[in-house]
Amino acid sequence: MNSENWAKMHGATVHFPIALVLCSGALDGLGFFFPVAAIRRGLHAAGYWTMMLGAAGTVPAVVSGLVMSRGVMLGHDTLRLHHLFAWPAFALIIGLATWRALASEFTARKAPAGYLVMACIAAVLVMAAGYYGGEMMLGH
Amino acid sequence: MENSARRLPEIGAGPRIAVAVLAASAALASAYGLSLGLRSVASRGSHQQPTPEAWFERPTPSSPAVITQGRALFLSSCAHCHGADATGDEGPDLHDVGVSDRYISNIITFGIKHEMPSFKKKLGHDDIARLTAYIRSLDDAARPGGDLDSTPANLR
């Protein structure tokens, strides 16, 4: 498969973790403040699974991106900016998903504030990486 | 889901954070390893191979002024991939490439599919000739005891 097809593959795979991680943060954030316990549990369960799926989705996105760029981890100009946000976002998402997978009581109760703060940081990093990714595809 | 989650043994916050950091580090390390492997494969598959054309063709007319102009073009158009000193970064080292001027000019003009963009629209014929002269001057600079006369002192 040539670089063009890997670029298409990157475009096809990268939107899943972006959407899922942002949704996860929003669901957990909503659940943190929601007064009704039953709905709060539902929101956190949804936040849990969207984070798990988002973390799983980062793997094909990262692999296709690396193959597309022939192994360039930083690069220059806009690609560098994209990577400067994408790599911390990747590490943070994997870390958050691992943390959450190990927190057995976590799915039933509200997310700790520390987790929410880190999820917000991950969301900001993902958005910035996505912005510069879009700049590379559509910007001039 | 919640019931099964409650049955799992509790893990303290400290070890949980430690494992999470370890997992994040492992993920980054895996990406770095993949990156190294891919870069190795890409460099082995590079299209830039020495050809004997250089033996049969006359070099592009050059002068220190032309090379200086070529150097300026190189910095604005090529250095972000080949490095400011042309020793290579994402793109290959351009010192002592061992190919003809026509080959260099063709690569700049048409690019290399999936590896290097074409500069046909960005650079005119004269600019490409200046760039070619600069890249050719790197051959001389790269050889031990080579002819450095054609390379301006500020570029050595």
Can you walk through the features of this model?
The complex is a heterodimer of chains A (140) and B (156). Chain A is mostly helical. Chain A has one domain (3-138). Chain A is built from four helices and no strands. In chain A, helix 1 runs antiparallel to helix 4 (113-138) and helix 2 (37-68) crosses helix 3. The longest helix of chain A has 32 residues, at 37-68. Chain B is mainly α and 156 residues long. Chain B has two domains: 2-44, no CATH class; 53-155, Orthogonal Bundle (Cytochrome Bc1 Complex, Chain D, domain 2), CATH 1.10.760. Chain B has seven helices and no strands. In chain B, helix 4 crosses helix 7 and helix 6 (101-110) packs across helix 7. The longest helix of chain B has 32 residues, at 13-44. Mean pLDDT of chain B is 75; it is low at 1-6, 48-56 and 145-156. Chain A binds chain B through residues 2-4, 41, 45, 58, 62-63, 66-67, 70-73, 75-77, 87, 90-92, 94-99, 102-108, and chain B through 1-2, 5-11, 15-17, 19-21, 23-25, 27-28, 31-32, 34-42, 80-81, 89-90, 114-115.
In terms of DSSP E residues, the strand content of chain A is under 5%
> What's the domain count of chain B?
2
CATH architectural group of the largest domain in chain B? Orthogonal Bundle
* Helix-and-strand structural type of chain B: mainly alpha
Radius of gyration of chain B: 24 Å
- CATH H level of the largest domain in chain B: which superfamily? Cytochrome c-like domain
The end-to-end distance of chain A, rounded to whole angstroms, is: 27 Å
* Sheet with the most strands, sense and barrel status of chain B: none
Average of pLDDT of chain A: 87
Q: What's the count of strands of chain B?
A: 0
Give the C-alpha Rg of chain A: 16 Å
> How would you describe the shape of chain A?
elongated
pLDDT averaged residue by residue of chain B: 75
**Which percent band covers the strand fraction of chain B?**
under 5%
SSE string of chain A: HHHH
Number of helices of chain B: 7
Q: Which pair has the most extensive contact?
A: A-B, 34 and 37 residues
